[in-house]
């Protein structure tokens, strides 16, 4: 795979005419603002991110504000975006920036990569867009553009192939207009060189693109070898309520699925709801009302959820204060909640009321 001349000039000329220039994070392009946008845009589409980004920046306009916030508050602003480790790492990185770097991002790629949750491509995007540093990115959009342009015949996730694509990305990175070029490559992949319906005739690289000369350009990038079907798991989620219609939520461990979020207590599908609730909380169950049953899919497994509302008498036992807490419905919905929990509280409880 040899670099082709005039690659970057064509991309930049296209960007000047067709690129996206009015996204919220393209205003006042500080390292902090670019960083937040890049983390949010991982695994998430631009249209979904925009309102989250705007709300987040209103609440946490500076790295100092983010570092000073409680993790629960940060996670509440992230609720619905998924991949919550991103938010936890971002909060940790903000604290480190304030404590160790006087609230300033490191100047070097290696320094930025040392911050929690920031890899090479994200670090490069931050430095090139906010500071004009000539350092290449290799996110999903750029991988797709390069894999098609060179008709890369192996899966980009393989180490050898990825290393070769990094060399290409570095070779094409210009020394001027670095931020514009980085944004242009992301835009090209997001708007023209899309996964399923690439608009090759509109692409500035079409004349030299090897994939465009094939019967089906979408065969590139080569797809990851098929894995076995995702495993299936089951759980019961309990909406435990008291006589004041408060809801009992459980704080999940900081690591693992939905780490650090408030969630509904769970139990295995074969367990008795009444026995579990009465033994765990030393109280009587007044009623059990079935709610919805649905599937929530993670990247690595399916979770089948059966929800029930469980009305309790007064709790006599002592609960772990840092693990369980009563909330009104409105206060619960203001917290960082897993998507299926929010669905149950918003939809099922509204239908009962």
Automatic annotation (TrEMBL):
It catalyses: Hydrolyzes free adenine bases from 7,8-dihydro-8-oxoguanine:adenine mismatched double-stranded DNA, leaving an apurinic site. It holds the Pfam family HHH. Residues 40-191 form the HhH-GPD domain. GO terms for molecular function: 4 iron, 4 sulfur cluster binding; 8-oxo-7,8-dihydroguanine DNA N-glycosylase activity; adenine/guanine mispair binding; metal ion binding; oxidized purine DNA binding; purine-specific mismatch base pair DNA N-glycosylase activity. GO terms for biological process: base-excision repair; mismatch repair. Binds 1 [4Fe-4S] cluster. Keywords: 4Fe-4S, DNA damage, DNA repair, Glycosidase, Hydrolase, Iron, Iron-sulfur, Metal-binding. Its EC number is 3.2.2.31. It comes from the Bacteria. The keyword NADP does not apply. Residues 214-234 are annotated as: Disordered. Transmembrane segments: none annotated. Its cofactor is [4Fe-4S] cluster. Belongs to the Nth/MutY family. NCBIfam families: mutY, PRK10880.1. Adenine glycosylase active on G-A mispairs. MutY also corrects error-prone DNA synthesis past GO lesions which are due to the oxidatively damaged form of guanine: 7,8-dihydro-8-oxoguanine (8-oxo-dGTP). This is Adenine DNA glycosylase. It comes from Marinomonas posidonica (strain CECT 7376 / NCIMB 14433 / IVIA-Po-181).
């Amino acid at each position: 795979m040899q670099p082709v001349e005039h690659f970057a000039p064509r991309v930049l000329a296209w960007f000047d005419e067709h690129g996206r220039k009015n996204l919220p994070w393209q205003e006042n392009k500080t390292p902090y603002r670019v960083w937040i946008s890049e983390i949010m845009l991982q695994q998430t589409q631009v249209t979904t991110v925009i309102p989250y980004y705007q709300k987040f920046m209103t609440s946490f306009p500076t790295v100092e504000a983010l570092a000073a916030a409680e993790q629960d508050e940060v996670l509440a602003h992230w609720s619905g975006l998924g991949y919550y480790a991103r938010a936890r790492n971002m909060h940790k990185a903000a604290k480190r920036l304030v404590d160790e770097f006087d609230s300033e991002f490191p100047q070097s790629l290696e320094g930025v990569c040392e911050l929690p949750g920031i890899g090479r491509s994200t670090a490069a995007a931050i430095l090139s867009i906010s500071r004009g540093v000539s350092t290449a990115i290799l996110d999903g959009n750029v991988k797709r553009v390069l894999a098609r342009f060179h008709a890369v015949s192996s899966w980009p996730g393989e180490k050898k192939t990825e290393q070769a694509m990094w060399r290409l990305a570095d070779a094409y990175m210009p020394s001027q207009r670095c931020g514009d070029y980085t944004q242009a490559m992301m835009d090209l992949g997001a708007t023209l060189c899309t996964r399923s319906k690439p608009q090759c005739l509109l692409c500035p690289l079409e004349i030299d693109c090897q994939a465009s000369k094939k019967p089906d350009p979408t065969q590139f990038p080569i797809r990851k070898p098929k894995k076995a079907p995702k495993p299936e798991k089951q759980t019961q989620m309990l909406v435990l309520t008291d006589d004041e219609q408060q809801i009992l939520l459980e704080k999940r461990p900081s690591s693992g699925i939905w780490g650090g979020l408030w969630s509904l207590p769970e139990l295995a599908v074969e367990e008795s709801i009444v026995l579990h609730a009465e033994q765990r909380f030393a109280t009587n169950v007044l009623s059990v009302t079935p709610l919805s049953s649905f599937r929530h899919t993670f990247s690595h497994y399916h979770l089948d959820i059966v929800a029930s509302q469980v009305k309790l008498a007064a709790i006599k036992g002592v609960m772990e204060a840092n693990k369980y807490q009563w909330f009104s419905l409105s206060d619960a919905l203001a917290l960082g909640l897993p998507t299926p929990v929010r669905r149950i509280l918003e939809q099922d409880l509204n239908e009962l009321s």
